[in-house]
Amino acid sequence: MTIPELTDVHAAWLPPEAFRAIGARRALVRGDGTLAETVHAEVARACERYGGSVRRTGDGPSDLVLALSAAEALPAVAAAIRDEAGPAGAEGYVLARRDGVTVVLADDPAGLLYGLFHVVRLGEPAFGADRPVERHRPATRRRMLDHWDNIDVHPVMGQVERGYAGGSIFWRDGVLRADLTRVRAYGRLLAACGINAVAINNVNVHAAEARLLTDRLGEVAAIAAELRPYGIRVHLSVTFASPVALGGLPTADPLDEDVRRWWATATERVYATIPDFGGYVVKADSEGQPGPFAYERTHADGANLLADALAPHGGVVHWRAFVYNHRQDWRDRSTDRARAAHDHFAPLDGRFRDNAILQVKYGPMDFQPREPVSPVIAAMPGTRLAVEFQVTQEYTGQQKHVCYLAPLWSEVLRFGPWGADGPAVADVAAGGGLVAVSNVGDDPFWTGHPLAQANLYAFGRLAWDPRLDPAAVLDEWIGLTFAPAAEPLRRTLHAMMDGSWRTYESYTAPLGVGFMVRSGHHYGPDVDGYEYTPWGTYHFADRDGVGVDRTRASGTGFTGQYPQPWSDVYESPGRCPDELLLFFHHVPYGHKLHSGSTVIQHIYDTHFAGAEQVAEMRTRWDKLDGSGLVEPALYARVRELLGEQLRCAEEWRDQINAYFSRKSGMPDAHGRRIP
Amino acid sequence: MTIPELTDVHAAWLPPEAFRAIGARRALVRGDGTLAETVHAEVARACERYGGSVRRTGDGPSDLVLALSAAEALPAVAAAIRDEAGPAGAEGYVLARRDGVTVVLADDPAGLLYGLFHVVRLGEPAFGADRPVERHRPATRRRMLDHWDNIDVHPVMGQVERGYAGGSIFWRDGVLRADLTRVRAYGRLLAACGINAVAINNVNVHAAEARLLTDRLGEVAAIAAELRPYGIRVHLSVTFASPVALGGLPTADPLDEDVRRWWATATERVYATIPDFGGYVVKADSEGQPGPFAYERTHADGANLLADALAPHGGVVHWRAFVYNHRQDWRDRSTDRARAAHDHFAPLDGRFRDNAILQVKYGPMDFQPREPVSPVIAAMPGTRLAVEFQVTQEYTGQQKHVCYLAPLWSEVLRFGPWGADGPAVADVAAGGGLVAVSNVGDDPFWTGHPLAQANLYAFGRLAWDPRLDPAAVLDEWIGLTFAPAAEPLRRTLHAMMDGSWRTYESYTAPLGVGFMVRSGHHYGPDVDGYEYTPWGTYHFADRDGVGVDRTRASGTGFTGQYPQPWSDVYESPGRCPDELLLFFHHVPYGHKLHSGSTVIQHIYDTHFAGAEQVAEMRTRWDKLDGSGLVEPALYARVRELLGEQLRCAEEWRDQINAYFSRKSGMPDAHGRRIP
To answer: What is the phi-psi region of residue B90: left when phi exceeds 0, alpha when psi lies from -120 to 50, beta otherwise?
Structure first.
């Protein structure tokens, strides 16, 4: 096992410097298995660089012990901690420092790996004063990234659908890359933040990519081999029509015996090739993808078909709940896309196999900067649900804008679907997992915008522990990425990033109404861009007011999909939180918000403020010029992108303000210039 | 010379049947030269088919004499007519019937060819009663089509920019087509309606196409060889940056001696290869194309550079006046794209060489269904101006909608820039020519929509004679294309097509305001699609009113670019013609039109009516089903497209009405449903 090192790619949150504290120590690594070898190799590499030492056996003194609990002849201090702490649990680890020795114990090698990265995060303080016993376990078993990578390059969309960081790190020119070092380096980064599963291809499965399941399976195996040393299992997006498209069967009917046999055989072959294969991801009956509706079967029938094929091998199917009518008549105000997932799936609760995981987007629409939490999350107690986020910034600035998304995800994860005192979204997701669309491509900074790396890092950390504070996670990321991170840089990055999601929200579509973006590519403002389209994404602004009436009283009834208290809170324009007002209600421009402002004045104020905040961001970054605190290439890339963000934020400000000023006829209370 | 015959391509307006009257006669063709050979071959081919005979010499009896005036030993009747009629003039012909002989006389072989096609148009009546002497001459020397064909296929735009009829008839898979029969057939169709010049490639000249001027010149020569027998000269779009891009010079400065030499040499090579080469077409400093501005030179400098290179060979340069700022700030209401061509070019009047033709779009914007006539046309008496139309239906339904454009062109050509009593646009254009962007591609019907053939035909006919009545031209086209055209079909086509441009106008952007189309591809409605873009195409609708104030009194001053009376007529909202009201004025929705209606009610009424008229069109066409009056493939294609037109017209109706209803809050006086 060699640690991947890339010379022409940014090290992200694992620069050599991040391993200095470990690399300068005497370490003992005890335990067997692939991941224990990885732990040893990581420590050995660090020691080579910083003068420490590592051994696998023997007595001598140690500053750091990383050991499987079951390992024989543990040093006394480690054995004592083991006996005191009890089992660490799957993927978990116990951490303590006593008698000058930092000890990490785990029941399985994966836990050992995560424990190692915990020590990396701690850095020098890991070797300071004594530390009491801490026990760490992931909140959920599956912490997953979905890649929307294609093998082939689309002339307009590029190779990665909704990808803003170049081409795929897996494929190039229609074939698997010859050098997969970068894939292993990617796995390493992911393990360091807690990810343990990756679906490697786009959920919109085109012809070439469909064959990854069959005659191109070797490519999946090659990727799996690179990710395995970092504890990451590979999953595959498959097309529901595979039995027809690949198997030559006349049908893909989930209840057809030949179809079931086909999937069973295909899946056997997959596991014969990749024994630790994770499972399938399916987008069915959605935006043109095939699915069980064509055979008048339910989505439970569809998901269970694949679950049954995977079950003998311990695999799971992630079945996406993103099903809606994307050919809606915009004239028809009774159809409500927000209702669709609940309408389709809630009645199926209890009918999914145990290894079928229903993957639900966090909001009822589609990864807008602000949506209510999806009511599906509270509606299916008899189903394993995974909650899906979007690390790739499709609707949040496309990795041209600084938009640190952890505060959004944290808000969702902490949200109580049955009220503040009940279980949180994170508790529901614990049974199914957390999934996010990756923001990575073959860009030298991995993510286009260097600061967008923080989103990838933070998603992994929140998937491991949803209770983490987003600002603290950011601080970790800064400490690792810019190690050693000087205080002025740390302060600058917090000032730029902590509130950047709310800044983005403030200069884009107001008060939760969403979708005021250029159609197709979704970058930049176009207030009416989706207003007269079949996509079900409307704001219904007229000269008197704006917003979507989703009440039971007079609207689409969507509020009725929520349990109490939200069912009533969202129903009432007086109780509905300001930030979601226009998602649930059509109100006059003069409507008073809880904040004391009116809807129209709120629109003006937030849009002026949002653009100003971006200008401040840029000023802060500019002050780093010549400071030597960040490398010149990274400095320059961020500076250039901040220019674009400011241009775009001003464009948002002016278009949104002009649109509503022209429509409402209402002046800005502060008399600012609206074009 | 063989007459091109294509088995898998529609015959358009030259089906064999159109030659029946000629083919059944005894004809004499007198004269030499390529075009006289073509005339002979055409008559011979018809006679083969319909039992007549043709000879080049000898006495015997004739029903039809086609002869150069200078030919020796003319039959007596022809000699008498010649003496009586006098010279026919360049490309002209004399036509008469006397003593049972139909006589066509011309001074040059081109005139003979056009005379032949006149007899084709007449059909059987050409051989009926005696006809007095008629003299026919083209109104202008250059009647030209611009092809926006590329060699390479753009992944989104396709091969032909703004082409709606498939790929290029010249190139395929990056190379010249091996079989150019279709190019010759195209030339034949064009000659039959009076076209005599074709620019074969896109004015946006990309890398591959730039080389047509140099190492790919052989391809131009091959196309020229196919078009030559039908009297059509080939022109080439070139990039102003050619000396840099192709010649390796450090500059393309029009006053640089090396640059001038480069152009002179390149042009010599062209004429050595293609002695009857027509000249160059240039789009400079426009939408990203290079031009003289980069060297702080004027467009006269730029045009004269090429004119000087072409002059020794008798060539001309068509220099497009379509120059404007396409990166305008939409917030800036003082900049007016409509002013741009006049602002740029009017001061240069008198500074262009005599073989530099300034090619001016008919309207100040860009081929909208309704624009005022460009003020440039009245502003440059010392410059040869060509007026440019768009046969390809970029903004007029993209050959999915029936939109017979001859009435639009006729209106423009008859328009008096100095008032009804002064010279017309056609008179100005007589000195420079008429040019249009072709609507032809490799589609089996040539033009996608079979009825769009009529536009191509009509452009040629109006270029030959701008005083022709559009309905009469359509009647000609029907008579030829569907020969023998049964009366019910004739009536149906007139009912569908005569008013189709006004129908299209009625369901799209109202009252001349333009550009309420989906950005980029320009198909279908998007009222705000261009409202907040850099393209300079705005409507400024707010809750109180709509339209662009282009007055001198309070607007951009564009009205001041017109001479009297239009300068005052357009300035006054009370005198401005209804159909151009919103082009020149921003008025309240309640503004009373000359028609007696208000702006808002006019919007509602025309949009309901427009969609209804399309429904009627479809009903009329449906009635032809099973009649046998049109071939099944053509029937089916038109029927399918009418379905799309109706869908789209209803979408226009509903989006435009909904937009203005939401914005104005004003109800429809007739209480119809507005979504």
So the answer is: beta
Residue of A nearest to B528 (CA): A528
- Compare CB distances from A665 to B528, B544, B675 and report the shortest one's residue: B544
Q: What pLDDT, in 10s, does the model give residues A79-104?
A: 999 999 999 999 999 999 999 999 99
Q: Please give the distance of CA B290 from its chain centroid, rounded to a whole number.
A: 25
Q: How confident is the model at residue A58 (pLDDT cuts 50, 70, 90)?
A: confident
Distances (CA, A) of B88 to A148, B62, B92, B97, B138: 70, 22, 5, 16, 11
Radius of gyration for the alpha carbons in chain A, expressed in angstroms and rounded: 25
Q: Is B542 on the interface with A (CB under 8 A)?
A: yes
Residues 6+ apart with CB under 8 A from B114: B91, B92, B93, B106, B136, B138, B191, B194, B464
Give the distance from residue B174's alpha carbon to the nearest chain A alpha carbon, in angstroms: 18
Residues in chain A within 8 Å Cβ distance of B658:
331, 532
Say what the ipTM of the complex is.
0.90
Nearest CB among B155, B525, B654 relative to A156 is that of: B155
Q: How far apart are CA B124 and CA B115, in angstroms?
A: 15
What one-character DSSP code corresponds to residue B419? B
Which pLDDT score, from 0 to 100, does residue B2 have?
87
Residue A42: φ, ψ to 5°: -60, -45
| Strand pairing category for A101-106 and A64-68 | parallel
Interface probe with B: pick from A542, A651, A666, most Cβ of B within 10 Å:
A542
Residue A668, exposed/middle/buried by CB under 10 A (0-12, 13-18, 19+)? middle
Please tell me the distance from the alpha carbon of residue B410 to that of residue A227, in angstroms, as a whole number. Answer: 70
pLDDT for A490? 98
Q: Cβ A662–B542 below 8 Å, yes or no?
A: yes
User: Phi then psi for A28, rounded to 5 degrees?
Assistant: -120, 125
Which residue in the set A155, A330, A527 is minimally distant from B528, CB to CB? A527
**Where in the sequence numbering do the catalytic residues of A fall?**
287, 366, 394
- Answer whether A523 touches B (CB < 8 Å): no
